[in-house]
Amino acid sequence: MIQLEDVTKVYRMGKVEVLALAGVDLTIDDGELVAIMGPSGSGKTTLMNILGCLDVPTTGRYLLDGTDASRLSDNRLAKIRSRKIGFVFQSFNLVARTSAVRNVELPLVYAGIRSRRNPARQALAQVGLGDREKHMPNELSGGQQQRVAIARALINDPTLLLADEPTGNLDTASSAEILKLLGALNDAGRTVVLITHEEEVAGFAKRVVRMRDGRIESDRVQRSRTEVTA
């Protein structure tokens, strides 16, 4: 599904060049649950941006379902994002004065799809919030807000779910609930990539990729996974 071949990323700041990725080779198969870890400045966020078609490599190739996304136009990248990729962020990114169901509808609004309410309700039910569709974000707990964000990420039925520090703003019990939900989505066949600096979150994944200085330092399958408890 995902294949990076000798990917580099250089950011230019005036006359200064910053090497964020330095020849990354990575393959992620359909249905995997992978955690990408690393300290600040390791390149994991840059890697996530490339995986999510939010950015393109400076050199190298990124193949997503056989399509080389490395040199696509912004419009083509936007279409891939809307059809194949769901994003979940640490800060939830919900619209404050909009109900849960309308927040979930937003990707369909941007896509110009008129029949939105039923798919949004189904997505909320999928994350266990079928009875909260009329609630505003400030009427929901942090864990519930993240569930709304996950429902929104699922609304277009993406094949890849990218979760950037999805438990970073949550307490222990809510974090466990979100990880269990992501695990259930993975068990149902969806590919999930977690970006995290937390060992507990990485321990939940089936495979852990560790980065340092723009390179992959290690890539291993976990023999035993951390049990998720509240």
Structure explained in plain terms:
The protein is an alpha/beta fold and 230 residues long. It has a single domain, classed as P-loop containing nucleotide triphosphate hydrolases (Rossmann fold, 3-Layer(aba) Sandwich), CATH 3.40.50.300. Helices cover 33% and strands 29% of the residues. The chain is built from 7 helices and 10 strands. The strands form 2 sheets. The chain has a 6-stranded mixed beta sheet with strand order 6-7-8-3-9-10, with helices on both faces. Helix 3 crosses helix 4 (117-126) and helix 4 (117-126) packs across helix 5 (142-154). The chain is globular, with a radius of gyration of 18 Å. The two termini are 33 Å apart.
Distance between the termini: 33 Å
SSE succession: EEEHEEHEHHHEHEHEE
Q: Quick one: CATH superfamily?
A: P-loop containing nucleotide triphosphate hydrolases
Task: Report the radius of gyration as a whole number of Å.
Answer: 18 Å
Number of domains: 1
Helix content: 25-40%
Q: How many E strands?
A: 10
Structural topology:
Blueprint: E1 2-13, E2 16-28, E3 33-37, H1 44-51, E4 59-64, E5 67-68, H2 74-84, E6 85-89, H3 100-110, H4 117-126, H5 142-154, E7 160-164, H6 172-187, E8 191-196, H7 199-204, E9 207-212, E10 215-221
Parallel strand pairs: 3-8, 3-9, 6-7, 7-8
Antiparallel strand pairs: 1-2, 1-4, 4-5, 9-10
Helix pairs in contact: 3-4, 3-5, 4-5, 5-6
Features:
10 strands; alpha/beta; 4-stranded antiparallel beta sheet; globular; 6-stranded mixed beta sheet
Summarize the structure.
By secondary structure, this protein is an alpha/beta fold. It has seven helices and ten strands.
